[in-house]
Amino acid sequence: MVTRTDAPTRREQILKEAARLFAERGFHGVGVDEIGAAVGISGPGLYRHFAGKDAMLAELLVGISGQLLTGGKRRAAEADGDPEALLDSLIEGHIDFALDDRPLITLHDRELDRLRESDRKLVRQLQRQYVELWVEVVRQVYPDLAEPAARASVHAVFGLLNSTPHLSRPGALPGRAATAQLLHRLARGAFAAAGSGA
Amino acid sequence: MVTRTDAPTRREQILKEAARLFAERGFHGVGVDEIGAAVGISGPGLYRHFAGKDAMLAELLVGISGQLLTGGKRRAAEADGDPEALLDSLIEGHIDFALDDRPLITLHDRELDRLRESDRKLVRQLQRQYVELWVEVVRQVYPDLAEPAARASVHAVFGLLNSTPHLSRPGALPGRAATAQLLHRLARGAFAAAGSGA
DNA sequence: GGAAATGGTTAACGGTCATTAACTTCGGCC
DNA sequence: GGCCGAAGTTAATGACCGTTAACCATTTCC
After folding, report:
1. Does the CB of A25 fall within 7 Å of any strand D atom?
2. Residue B1 CB partners (closer than 8 Å, separation 6+)
3. What is the pLDDT at residue B8?
4. Is residue A93 situated within a structural domain?
5. By three-state DSSP, how is residue A178 classified?
6. What's the CA–C1' distance between A32 and D13, in Å?
């Protein structure tokens, strides 16, 4: 885990606020003036940091997909040889991401089409690799599961884990640790059910 | 099941195409001219059938929430007294909806904020009732599950069941029946895991 | 100490788009 | 046969919004 102590750069502030706003009201629903206002500068000042509104979205989506894949690969390298432990580790990592970066998770599957062809291709490629990583592990843990079923199950479990943004305002939740544990159990339960009766 | 034999009215055509387009590119991403073109009339002709673009979205979202809730209540009435069977029935109904009306499912949790205050309140109220219906049943089947955990689990399973739109182009799927069966098993497995180790 | 880069500002431009206006077409009905 | 309402049409309007232009402050560095 790399923890940062230095202050976030203006660029990072902008990305963070843009992510929040995009997630709340959609890419087209947010104006550049709003994004600017969220970081204390106004409208066109953003163009000192980004080529345009599209560029912000692109950087966000590529960043997300990259982080997920990188984290997944790292975990795969660490838990070398133990599929059970690796599956748990992947689930844990995805949950951390979903809980800590809700806005990004929301963007991730909502605004992909707004990207330039090249960026969209890149994001999709990263996403695909991430899914394949999961599919391989799931099939090692549950060898009876056919590949299409495994892939569908992985997508479904992503949907499950990514459901946290919908959990109303953060109030009703039983606390972060308990939520993480619950999501973990739900995910493992889903996989187990798919893998046993196939 | 009420099956219709008469031709769809122009109004229904519009709603259907609008749902598809909104789901594909987002509410703000679709112009009225496009919606019109999709049903063979052009642009402002839509205003003979709807008060405005917002009105279409409102009718779609209220319709979805209403259908889900109505269907859920009907199932609750039918499977009287047998929580296990009712849970299966609810899952089955939700899966049917997710598989048959993908665009609507997508809209359902994506564009709620675009609504007028009153419509949004109505939709949320319908959604809440639907969730509560599930929560009650889940807690009857798994009495050890505390209420907040049950509610979170229900939301998570919704995320799981609603994941079908993300399953790439309909090609890779193992056929509708098999997909439905797999989703059902995943959902039951998730609930079982949450309910046993609480 | 001055030049240049950096990060802002406000004002203007241009395009897109929902909505309205004004006008047509046509099928049913007395 | 003439009226009328329903369902369209195109053209105009007005708002919004992303982007660019032109200009200013401040820091950095030779």
Report:
1. no
2. none
3. 83
4. yes
5. helix
6. 25
